[in-house]
Amino acid sequence: SAVNVPRDFEGCSTLRKYFGQLHYLQSRIPMGAEQEAAVPIAWTEIFSGKTVTHEDIKYEQACILYNLGALHSMLGAMDKRVSEECAAGAFTYLRDHFPHSYSVDMSHQILNLNINLMLGQAQECLLEKSMLDNRKSFLVARISAQVVDYYKEACRALENSETASLLGKIQKDWKKLVQMKIYYFAAVAHLHMGKQAEEQQKFGERVIYFQSALDKLNEAIKLAKGQPETVQEALRFTMDVIGGKYNSAKKDNDFIYHEAVPALDTLQSVKGAPLVKALPVNPTDPAVTGPDIFAKLVPMAAHEASSLYSEEKAKLLRDVMAKIEAKNEVLDQFMDSMQLDPETVDNLDMYSHIPPILMEKCAALSVRPDTVKNLVQSMQVLSGVFTDVEASLKEIRDLLEEDEAQERKLQELLGKVPPPQGSPPSLSPGLAEVSKECSKYMEVHEKASFTNTELHKAMNLHIGNLRLLSGPLEQVRAALPSPALTEGEWCCAPQGGGCAPGGLAWPLSPPCPSDDKQVLQNLKRILAKVQEMRDQRTSLEQQLREMIQKDDITTSLVTTDRSEMKKLFEEQLKKYDQIKVYLEQNLAAQENVLKALTDANVKYAAVRKALAEVEHKWNTTVQTLVASYEAYEDLMKKSQEGKDFYTDLEGKAAKLLEKARAACQAAEANRQQILEKEMKKQPPPRPTAPKPALQKKPLELEAGGLDAGDLPPLGSLVLPELPEELRSL
């Protein structure tokens, strides 16, 4: 297919594929000059018609490249002049990568000739496109000047004696045509330089450029003899344009502007602008050559070279990771010392709403509107039962104390020595049992009274919070503390300066913002930069690792000469340069970021303290409110337990009170009987006048015994202060 290639772009594709597969083949099979598998390869020389044979696969590749360039040039000649891509790429690759001794048509001079002819014609296409697009005159002049430069290089190659002998008669024709083009495009360049001078109103320069263009065009016309009619017609048209421009410019300058016309060599020369490119030739591009049909043939040398390349990649990764880890260690230590958590450094949003846990408690109480009322009623009932129990026990204690007092009086009346004050009296069995039980109940009551007091304290502590939670959410939100940060204030600066209103500083006084929110926002911004730096560093590290892992150049190593391995490694490792630059920039930025963070943290210190205090109060308040909600059920439970306890104790105390009353009545009756017996044992008293003093005093008997002479008649005694039970005496 490559030998009988069709004259179209499909033929170009076939030549490229064949060239690429030859490249793959020669890297596996020793088919080079004087190698074991070399075979004779014959091609016909284009100019002499001789058959040239070499036992070297590179000769086959060189001939294919030559034909690729030739086919591109044929297609370019047939195509419309709208593309600046050219066939120079094949000839350039052939010149730079293959020996020039295979045949004379592949000599260095011939290849240079071909390259510059192709580039010159491609630049012509670009020049025509620029003129049709009405580009600026100076740009068009530079493009045309570059056409001249390319053709001058081609002319030098044509003037070489070796080239002249090879080309024979056509050498003169080509040289004449190339020289004609040199003059023609030089005229076009100066025509547009004159147009630029006209735009700049440099009328003297305009005249000399147009004159120079006219002179060069005349030279081109002389060299164009024998050229086709189309060329002659183009030259005549150009002459009309340049001649008209020159005559008009000269006339205007002579009669209107009168500017001096400088010499051409005093003006700056027009520098060419090479804007065309050769089609690159890459024998290992799979998009062009197709898949390597010898891919499974991998020489051991290629495996060894791949291992060496892997070590180069590992070394690169170790160097980069050492730098990253060093910077990360510094960053981690710094951030640990600062104790700045980006997630919590700005907790202002927390104060703008009620926390979910509190909302949950409010919602729970909203469906139980009688919560506080029930708790208050329960505690009131408990207080009532408590009071009843306390009253019953007090009455029992009063009865016992009264009975004790009556017993002492009886003992004194009978002349017996009563027990010392404060010592337990001798009680009747019934009263002793009542006293014992009363003491037990009093002890239990005292302990329960402490519990009851604590329960009331707890209720008083939580009742307000429960009322708050049961009320409108606005009140709950208002009850929570919130920070009061300054905004837009300016502090006065010492050292001879002061701040003007609105933050405008008087001389010698730099503005000193006292804006807490601005300080906070600045700190957040820098912390975000720190995190961005971390994330970017991690991302770049991951990209580098993935690139290294996927980087397999075994195929390239197969087709590369051993002497070129080091160069190939260097070229392949360049693919990591960009990501290394990004990493270096990231690591270098750390010092500036941390310095900015240090400065921001210094300004943040006061704000941080204030926020910490408010946050502590906030958390405490929330916890207290939540604790009050959670304490409600416990309060109700303990209140019910207290009611049950005191109800039971009240029943027992009531029974004991009845028992105490009965026992006291029995004891009183017993004392009356004893007193009556004692009275009967005494002789009848002598009647005497009643002593007035006894009418106002209770019955008093001396400790030594009864004295009949001291006792008034029983019927005449008036004892208004005696208990009802003793008045019959």
Report a brief summary of the structure:
The chain has 729 residues and is an all-alpha fold. Helix content is 67%, strand content 1%.
Q: What are the key terms here?
A:
mainly alpha, Serine Threonine Protein Phosphatase 5, Tetratricopeptide repeat, 20 helices, endosome, BRO1_dom, cytoplasm, PTN23 phosphatase
Mean pLDDT, nearest integer? Answer: 78
CATH fold label of one domain: Serine Threonine Protein Phosphatase 5, Tetratricopeptide repeat
Order of helices and strands: HEEHHHHHHHHHHHHHHHHHHH
β-sheet strand percentage? under 5%
CATH superfamily of one domain: alix/aip1 like domains
Poorly predicted regions: 488-513, 691-720
Helical content stands at: 55-70%
